[in-house]
Amino acid sequence: MTVDLRHATGALPTASRPVVMGVLNVTPDSFSDGGLALTDDGTPDRALAVGRALVAAGADCIDVGGESTRPGAEPVPVDEELARVVPVVAGLAADGIVVSVDTRHAAVARAALAAGASLVNDVGGLAPDAGMLDAVASAGAGYVLMHLRGEPRTMQDDPRFDDVVAEVEGELLAARAAATDAGIDPAAIALDPGIGFGKTLPHNLALLAAVPRLAALGSPLLVGTSRKSFLGHLTGVDEPAQRLAGSLASAVLAVRDGARIVRVHDVAATVEALAVVGAIDGAGGGPRHGGA
Predict the structure, then answer these.
(1) For the sheet containing 142-146, what is the strand order?
(2) d(Cα 65, Cα 149) in Å, to the nearest integer?
(3) Which residue is catalytic, options 227, 228, 243, 256?
(4) Which residue is catalytic, options 176, 227, 243, 263?
(5) Which of 58, 82, 95, 254 is most deeply buried (CB count within 10 A of its CB)?
(6) Ranges of the chain with pLDDT below 70
(7) Given its phi and psi angles, is residue 140 left (phi above 0), alpha (psi -120 to 50 degrees) or beta?
(8) CATH homologous superfamily for the domain 6-283
(9) What is the pLDDT of residues 129-156, one digit of tens each?
(10) pLDDT tens-digit readout, 160-193
(11) Catalytic: 199?
(12) Is 228 one of the catalytic residues?
């Protein structure tokens, strides 16, 4: 089953190939690229240039975030997050770029949607901020509902599951039902199992192995593995920006197993890798695995 997000996001393809979502963090402390898109004078110029470069490299959508959600990250005051995010969203949207806002806060989501964002990527989707679902529904926006128990500051303290796949699946389905009950169009919802968010290495691997099952839940599945620490544990690569091989391998396998959206830092390399996979699958009659 293919669920069409285009009415909510303006331009995202859902059938011919997976959506490539480029990461644009306007934060000083994100795990991989903190500070790279910031300027000393606080202007959005560098972030806008980075976002435009990601689009030129093949990104379908730019995910703008103003609060780091790395393990142990401290919360950012909403006013500060707004100041970081809104000018960048407005500038990119004015260029006709499809923009997602990566936020846990309803006030930031509402302001970003008003500035031209068409998609909210909610790390707090299991327990949304008061007013978040209404903000998305009122704007007719897309909504990425991510699995995370708790908050980034404490999520890696002692994550435990009896059956990680079954529990993540059940909690995502319950959150999706709450979102639709709040008025969000079911066709505008994507699900994200939250790789690296309150999960151990075995949890992450089990969820990635279960992508076919999660992709069959009736909503497009977003998978975000790019540069994450579990890849470093598997490969011995300590520097996040050097984890390209692991990032590509996990993204390609997720897409082959049915993921429809991949959230990545290395856009050009991901687009190239997926083009090769698409060509091979096309020559062989289609993907090896089914999906949403």
Answers:
(1) 189-192, 142-146, 119-122, 99-102, 61-65, 19-25, 261-264, 222-223
(2) 20
(3) 228
(4) 263
(5) 254
(6) 1-16, 29-42, 70-73, 286-292
(7) left
(8) Dihydropteroate synthase-like (3.20.20.20)
(9) 999 999 999 999 999 999 998 777 777 7
(10) 899 999 999 999 999 999 999 999 999 999 999 9
(11) no
(12) yes
